[in-house]
């Protein structure tokens, strides 16, 4: 079972359907037991940074512990950003600090939010992008982007006013700034790859 | 590179997709979930679902139809029609919408946009603006606070209409676009009532004025009759995305026909 953390706002139906279509059994949850028993945890991409961190507070310790013990995690959009130490969204707020770095607002010389289909430039091979072409189109909706301290975690980048990381991997933690559940066939492939990684690990 | 988006629109009435001319004379065009899946498979960049009579009937949106439609698509899905408050927005997002389009409620209570953007994020709040040309008083300065634009047909300003194009508001559409941006809307869905369903092309002047005066993405709507019209609104009109209904529903052109045409003309699209 893969559990999707429910922050209490926004559309979680799409990511649930996407993972199910990719072959996973999915449970939406706010409970520590589910985080502990799941084979993998997905942090979805809906809502604002501060709200998401508040909603995750009761789960925070369990999440950190499970991930440190090697549990697989996939962060999507906001779910990628909360992995970092802090974000400038709506003030300055602390994240889960699973990856070193911070989250900043996209530059003001481009239209923000960055909404639409943009290409990913693959920097290095990663099982999450198995079968995905360099230059594939993915769907983005965000106003902030992550700046990792260690560039080695960057798997792919995308350009929008700035070259930002669109796919990240740090050991057992995977994350995408785009929405795979909204990126048509290419996005479903990313989800199938994640489900395959989970199944292989079990 | 960020592409221009091609967005088919499902205008839904009584649970069926319909299409009219200038918001009237509605004809049946199919089942929402079926058409939605068809467009997803056809490479549509997004999908918009508008319950076009929810607001004028003063009832809530058809949630079960939204759910069944959302379950069939893996591209961004925007839902509008009869959205009145934060509870309605939450319900629609939980039903599987990625964004909500707010029109009448935004005009009646602009704070709805601010509250919704704070609660759910700007990225999922689309402000829909239905605009209609009003002939300006020629040779007279008395156009009040309206933004008057010179067109080949004379001088006009654009008035915001609500309740599915039935009720004029006296509000200048271009100014309203700037206000909704300030309130936190993440996108504008701009429909020309004059051109809607006419297949004679988009209202390029309206689209360009709104795009020049705002900094958020603008989806142009109303009037698409062929790929050239879409090309014009994405280039001369400066729109970020083009929405169309009839030309896709009745199979006159496929999404890929339009995208190939745009690609050949040098417009960045996702093929």
Commentary on this structure:
The complex is a heterodimer of chains A (202) and B (271). Chain A is α/β, with parallel strands linked by helices. Chain A has one domain: Rossmann fold (3-Layer(aba) Sandwich). Helix content of chain A is 28%, strand content 31%. In chain A, strands 2-1-3-4-14-13-12-9 form an eight-stranded mixed β-sheet, with helices on both faces. In chain A, helix 3 links the parallel strand 3 and strand 4. The mean pLDDT of chain A is 95. Helices cover 32% and strands 29% of the residues of chain B. In chain B, helix 8 links the parallel strand 12 and strand 13. In chain B, helix 6 packs parallel to helix 7 and helix 8 packs across helix 10. The two termini of chain B are 13 Å apart. The mean pLDDT of chain B is 91.
Largest sheet of chain A: 8 strands, mixed
State the separation between the terminal residues of chain B, measured CA to CA: 13 Å
Question: Structural class per helix/strand content of chain A?
Answer: alpha/beta
Number of helices of chain A: 5
Percent of residues of chain A in helical segments? 25-40%
Series of H and E elements of chain A:
EHEHEHEHEEEEEEEEEEH
Strand content of chain B: 25-35%
| Radius of gyration based on Cα positions of chain A | 15 Å
Indicate the CATH topology of chain A. Rossmann fold
What's the number of structural domains of chain B?
1
Question: Outline of chain B, from the CA principal axes?
Answer: globular
CATH H-tier superfamily of chain A: Class I glutamine amidotransferase (GATase) domain
């Amino acid at each position: 079972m893969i559990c999707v953390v429910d922050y209490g706002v926004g559309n979680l139906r799409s990511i649930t359907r996407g993972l199910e279509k990719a072959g996973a059994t999915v449970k939406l949850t706010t409970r520590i037991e589910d985080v502990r028993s799941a084979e993998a945890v997905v942090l979805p991409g809906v809502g604002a940074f501060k709200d998401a961190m508040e909603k995750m507070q009761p789960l925070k310790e369990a999440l950190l512990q499970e991930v440190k013990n090697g549990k697989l995690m996939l962060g999507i959009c906001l779910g990628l950003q909360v992995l970092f130490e802090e974000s400038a969204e709506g003030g300055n707020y602390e994240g889960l600090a699973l990856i070193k770095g911070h989250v900043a607002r996209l530059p003001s010389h481009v239209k923000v939010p960055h909404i639409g289909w943009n290409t990913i430039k693959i920097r290095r091979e990663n099982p999450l992008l198995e079968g995905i072409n360099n230059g594939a189109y993915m769907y983005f909706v965000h106003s902030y982007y992550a700046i990792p301290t260690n560039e080695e975690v960057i798997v792919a980048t995308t350009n929008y006013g700035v070259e930002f990381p669109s796919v990240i991997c740090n050991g057992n933690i995977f994350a995408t700034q785009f929405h795979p559940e909204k990126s048509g066939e290419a996005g479903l492939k990313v989800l199938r790859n994640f489900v395959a990684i989970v199944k292989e690990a079990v | 590179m960020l592409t221009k988006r091609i967005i088919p629109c499902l205008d839904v009435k009584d649970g069926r997709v319909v299409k009219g001319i200038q918001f009237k004379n509605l004809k049946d065009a199919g089942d929402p979930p079926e058409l939605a899946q068809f467009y997803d498979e056809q490479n549509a960049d997004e999908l918009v679902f508008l319950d076009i009579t929810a607001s004028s009937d003063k009832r809530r949106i058809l949630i079960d139809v939204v759910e069944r439609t959302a379950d069939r698509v893996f591209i961004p899905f925007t839902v509008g029609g009869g959205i009145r408050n934060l509870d309605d927005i939450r319900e629609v997002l939980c039903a599987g919408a990625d964004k909500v389009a707010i029109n009448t409620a935004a005009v009646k209570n602009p704070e709805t946009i601010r509250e919704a953007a704070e609660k759910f994020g700007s990225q999922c709040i689309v402000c829909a603006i239905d605009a209609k040309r009003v002939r300006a008083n020629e040779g007279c300065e008395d156009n009040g606070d309206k933004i008057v634009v010179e067109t080949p047909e004379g001088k006009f300003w654009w008035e915001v209409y609500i309740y599915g194009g039935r009720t004029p508001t006296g509000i200048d559409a271009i100014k309203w676009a700037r206000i909704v941006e300030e309130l936190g809307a993440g996108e504008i869905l701009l429909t020309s009532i004059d051109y809607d369903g006419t297949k004679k092309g988009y209202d390029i002047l309206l689209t360009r004025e709104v795009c020049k005066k705002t900094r958020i993405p603008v989806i142009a709507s109303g009037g698409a009759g062929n790929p050239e019209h879409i090309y014009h609104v994405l280039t001369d009109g400066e729109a970020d995305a083009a929405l169309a209904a009839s030309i896709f529903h009745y199979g006159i052109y496929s999404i890929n026909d339009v995208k190939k045409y745009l690609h050949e003309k040098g417009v960045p699209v996702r093929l």
